[in-house]
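Worked Example 4.2. Consider the chain below.
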Amino acid sequence: MEVPVVTITGGNGTGAKAEATLANFIHEVTFNSIASANQVDLPLNTIAIGSPHKFRDGEHVFYETNGLTPIGGLENNSEYYVGVVDAYRVKLYKTQVDAVTGKNVIDLTSFGIGGHTLRTVNYRKKVGSIRVIDSGKNYENKLRQVASTGINTASNLINIRNHGYKSGDIITYSTSGSEILGLSTAQSYYVTAYDNNQFYLSQVGIGSTTRAQYYNAREYVDLRSQGSGTHSFNYEPIKVKIKGIVGLTTVTTTESIIVDSRTIRSGIVTEIATAGQTDFTFGYPVRPSNPQLLDVFMDGVRLNSVDYDATSGTQIVLQSPANGTEIVEMVSYASTVRTQYTEVTAGAGQTNFPFIYSPGNLDVL
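Applying the procedure from the previous section yields the following structure tokens:
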């Protein structure tokens, strides 16, 4: 089997590489052999599966009735070869040559009873795990939010204090209310930083237009309204795409898989502290028995975990009140990242389970 190709996109980072490791498995499907299920067609000698069967022409399979009455023409616990009719239907043959050429199909003479199974005789390969071989650099999620009053329609600038974006970054847009006229939640945009607190947006080119055409030409989006609600901007989602062969078809699957739990940010909120303030609203995943995967910075200095309380999942509470005007940045990291995952069935009385891990970075579910 061809090894699937793994690509990592989004997060405004570069250089991340991963590879798929294949594992053996037996593929099987179950179908209902009774007449009323309409899965066995006697005149056409076909067996239909309720979902794509994923068998290949000439594939060696084992037929099992699970202790019930077999289909006429087939024998329980016997081996056959598959002839693919389409993604959902197959015919069965006694030899591989017949299956590939479509000759001498087995004549199905009567319906069976109950659920029957077809399973591959030989092992197949599937993706058993994905291994990151290069974590790349600068991968992060950089969420920034602003009220509609921060949208300057006269200058086409978006005003967010200490936004942290740089020219050439690609970001997405979403809103809790109505869209800013000129922007779409279905598109991504290039950033041109005006200064630390303001930036322009340019469309990302599609089709025959190069991605950076509008950005290079400094053609900025015309912001024709302020919209309503809270407007959110962020780097494109970090995703791992796996492209490979599934049965008869080349498919691409996409999962939101984070590359490195300590260098990729899943949320950032920045506030200007007021005098005496201790509580700061911030959402983050709670890990009851482990250190929280987050950092708190005050005027660029990272605070120690004893300097604040982070147990609620909704607030950061400073142990000492702020003096006022400090820039407080709260950063959460992807707690759902798994660099290694093992699932076992526990035996009666079992207490010990072999597993290699780094202390303080483990969840047991």
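Residues 96-101 form the longest helix (6 residues). Residues 265-333 form one domain. Compare this with Example 4.1 before moving on.
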